[in-house]
Amino acid sequence: MCCDSKRRFLLLYATQKGQAKAIAEEIWQQAGAHGLEADIHCISEMDKYNLETEKDPVVIVISTTGTGDPPDTARKFVKKIQDKTLPPDHFAHLKYGLLGLGDSEYMFFCNGGRTVDRRLQELGAQHFYDTGLADDCVGLELVVDPWIDGLWLALKEALQLQKEKEGMNSTVDAVSSSLSTALHAVDELKLSAEVQNLKLEDEGARGSDVLSQKLGDINLVAPARDTEPSLVHSVPPLSQSALNIPALPPEYIEVHFQDTQGENPHLSSLTSEGITFEVPVTKAVQLTREDAVKTALLLELDIADTAFEYQPGDAFCVICPNNVSEVEELLHILGLSEKGDDFVCVKVKQGTKKKGASRPQHIPERSTLKFILTWCLEIRAVPKKAFLRALVECTSDAGEKRRLQELCSRQGASDYTHFIRDSNVCLLDLLHAFPSCKPSLSLLIEHLPKLQARSYSVSSSNLYQPGRLCFVFNVVEFPAGPSRPVSRKGICTGWLAELVAPLLHPSKNSLDTKGERSSTEKISIFPRPNNAFHLPADPSVPLIMVGPGTGISPFIGFLQHRQKLREQHTDWEFGETWLFFGCRHQDRDYLFKQLRCFLENGTLSHLEVCFSRDFSTAEVAPPKYVQDILRLCAKEVARVLLKERGYFYICGDKKHMADDVSDAVVDILSMEMEADKLEAMKILAMLREAKRYLQDVWS
């Protein structure tokens, strides 16, 4: 902690995918221009800071992962502060400001930050600056940028107040006056997470961390006849505006090519989750017809010879590579096609101005270049503004340079959201759109995030199929668009589909001596247990399952498990089971027609299905969506939830299904209880709190 104590503040970040870290680093970079010094650490590095004795203001940037959990890097910290033996004044000396990152597409928005914020308050800590909650659904920068702008005044007020309290000659009146001023300043800086309430008008440069670019300094080459903006072209007033752009992030990585040979690291070294398992794919089935809108696949893995354990309802992660052709294309653009198999050594650049610079944990110190681009870096990631700012310096064409500056500027926030973020533009798209941009390999390592393993719900029961693990997924398709000239498949789902193609379409060479399909393909996985999305511990408790499309996946495991329990324990009492399933067409994407078997053997009490795109000649149109069938079964749903204290499970798409189902349940409770909606919403909140209304959703 070498910072000047008079101007120092402690800056902690807890990140899952790198966004919280990037924002914390931007705060650190801007601090100097405001006469402050940030002592920055990952919140997991608890040996490098001590909140129990911290006297200076603390700034925390924290993301949310999973179903509202703090990121993995914050687990130990959260566990420590959740200690129930801590007294209520444990952090009474602490002054802090917190910025939470989340996605309102998910139920527990910013819950990682809220959890830490709430617990610090319970332990006596006090805000010196109001909490900000940034929403990745609409753009983090809409809250992050103004929150950072207001941070500096609040920090200076807090430091001044601290100095006056420590000064022996300060009068009580002076302290009171300073406190009043600080509180007034904080009140004026209150931020709303509601986007419509944000005022993003530029109020001038923020100091030396911002470059004010005058129009006359750049040679604009945009044709006057273009009246619509695009990824590569802007229109007035943006094209004629002076720009406030972020400070240039300091370089901190250097890459050296080596003549020596060797072996690449094992894939298990790419994850911090502990042990990984390399398991063979033993079966692949296409569940949808060729003319279905989406292609759904079921894969079966052999885990018999491993220590992998799971329960129905759990998830697991697949370690996947980037697309081979995209890696080759990137190597070509970088001018490194001939060096893909060469070994490189990645080190921190000597003399870098980046504080606490270190080689990213997901980058091996020594491996081939192709290994880094294939297994370590998320080359499909949407570039952050700091990356765009760095790419400006690698661009030779004046018009392209100006447009990149616009896209990372405060004035170009709307264009960034529309043409970069919402269009899912990636690095390759940018390099095609701005051909004079030639970034270095070290710049990519500095700015591209870690290639994350992809999570899938288990669709089997180890009791029903010992030594086997099944999962179901749609092959994700990203269509071409104005900002992305080519269509792409999902990184993991596209790779898996290609990997199991021999199992789906066997040739003579892929058949074993018995004429059966054989495969030696293996994938690396690791468990990601779900703490709540499990069958009730008491089998007599009834349950309702809602899973349209591939959302049915975990419920297949539920039913398999329940069927086996019924066979093994004939004297047990089992509660009734309801399953609500929906898809587009009965003959194209009814994923598990064998659900009838569960119905026939009594494992499943009620099966309700709907087909949203099938044409009907009936006088009364059949229900199209699962929420419609739920409303038709309102009395039964209310009975299970209210009278029989049953469980309600939802799995599937958050935006287009889970919210509608939640609304339907509120309507059902309101109608059957003869209560207003507010009372019904309170009941639903109580069900969530009691872990009887459970979701496994994605956006």
TrEMBL record:
InterPro entries, sorted: CysJ-like_FAD-binding (IPR003097), FAD-bd_FR_type (IPR017927), Flavdoxin-like (IPR001094), Flavodoxin/NO_synth (IPR008254), Flavoprot_Pyr_Nucl_cyt_Rdtase (IPR001709), Flavoprotein-like_sf (IPR029039), FNR_nucleotide-bd (IPR039261), NADPH_Cyt_P450_Rdtase_alpha (IPR023173)
Annotated organism of origin: Callaeas wilsoni (North Island kokako)
Gene for this chain: Mtrr
UniProt superkingdom: Eukaryota
A Pfam family assignment: Flavodoxin_1
Subcellular location: Cytoplasm
Quaternary structure (record): Forms a multiprotein complex with MMACHC, MMADHC and MTR.
Domain Flavodoxin-like per the UniProt entry, residue ranges: 9-152
Stated name of the protein: Methionine synthase reductase
Family matches, as PROSITE patterns: FAD_FR, FLAVODOXIN_LIKE
GO molecular function, one term: [methionine synthase] reductase (NADPH) activity
Record's keyword terms, sorted: Amino-acid biosynthesis, Cytoplasm, FAD, Flavoprotein, FMN, Methionine biosynthesis, NADP, Oxidoreductase, Phosphoprotein, S-adenosyl-L-methionine
Record GO biological process: cobalamin metabolic process; folic acid metabolic process; homocysteine metabolic process; methionine biosynthetic process
